[in-house]
Amino acid sequence: MIIVLGATGTIGQHLVRILEKQGEDFVIVARDKQKASAQFPKAKIRYGDLSKATSLKTAFQGGNALFLVSPHGPDMVSQQCAAILRASKLGIKRIVKISGSNASVAEDSVYAIGREHWEIEQTLKEHADEFVILRCNFFMQNLLEEVAAMVRSQRKILMPFSKNLTFCFLDAQDIAQCAVNCFNEPQHAQKTYHLTGRKSSFSELASILSQQLGSQIRYRSIPLFLAKLALRLKGKPRWLVEHQIEMSQFFRAGGASIESSDIGLILKNPPALLENFLSRHLAYFKTMN
Asked: What's the total number of domains in the chain?
């Protein structure tokens, strides 16, 4: 039985749908059972809180595999390490972890998020009988939030990146399918994969949206300090503002520019194309009447 954390998140919701479709045996562990039940009414759901390690003993009971993901935050390292240690004590054999971008994860990384994921990965390698690490790039689903809101309201995209800076935008559905394959196929044990989509850019994003929406969408690069000011004006917590600015610095340095073939190795299919993803989600970018 697969223990699923983060079922209501960007990757987790796709993972659960795939597991349901394939008839896999799994249970969702959620801090908010009501929210999880509303999203997945047919799934088995248990209470579990990564901040309360004692709750995980019952939550993880009977599992032989664990999908490990949690939101970024000040307690991410302690929470994920607690999950790994509890899984190890209960004899859970295989753990598939969603990790940070490949270019950032290192003991001496200049990026805090990279050092944090590196620390979790070391705990995973030390305590899990079988582990699989999926290092992930910039999610296409992130475009459906602030970028889509800009397009709807201004017909512009304003981001702190040069227009032709390469981004290998990645569909979370591909990540979820990779995770499922890594649970079911023994050859992935003790592997670390670098997951990316195909090379693209925000300039290309604006061009594709212009074609699909039938009206011109412009892209404009803005200074990083303006992006930081916008986040502060929205009332974001200080730690989240600092994290998002750090990630912007990482991307500006080319952190999402390196294309990998690992999705093809796991899925035996190429990653989702940006134009196909946008076509499926075009409603997010259309002005509401």
From this structure: 1
The residues pairing with 26 across neighbouring beta strands, listed in sequence order, are 2
What is the extent of the structural domain holding 185? Answer: 2-137+172-195+259-271
Domain of 119, CATH number, reads 3.40.50.720
The three state secondary structure string of the chain is CEEECCCCCCCHHHHHHHHHHHCCCEEEEECCHHHHHHHCCCCCEEECCCCCHHHHHHHCCCCCEEEECCCCCCCHHHHHHHHHHHHHHCCCCEEEEEECCCCCCCCCCCCHHHHHHHHHHHHHHHHCCEEEEEEECCEHHHHHCHHHHHHHHHCEEEECCCCCCCECCECHHHHHHHHHHHHHCHHHCCEEEEECCCCECHHHHHHHHHHHHCCCCEEEECCHHHHHHHHHHCCCCHHHHHHHHHHHHHHHCCCCCCCCCHHHHHHCCCCCCHHHHHHHCHHHHCCCC
pLDDT tens string, the chain, 289 residues long: the values are 999 999 999 999 999 999 999 999 999 999 999 999 999 999 999 999 999 989 999 999 999 999 999 988 899 999 999 999 999 999 999 999 999 999 999 999 999 999 999 999 999 999 999 999 999 989 999 999 999 999 999 999 999 999 999 999 999 999 999 999 999 999 999 999 999 999 999 999 999 999 999 999 999 999 998 888 888 888 888 888 888 899 999 999 999 999 999 999 999 999 999 999 999 999 999 986 5
* Model confidence pTM above 0.90: yes
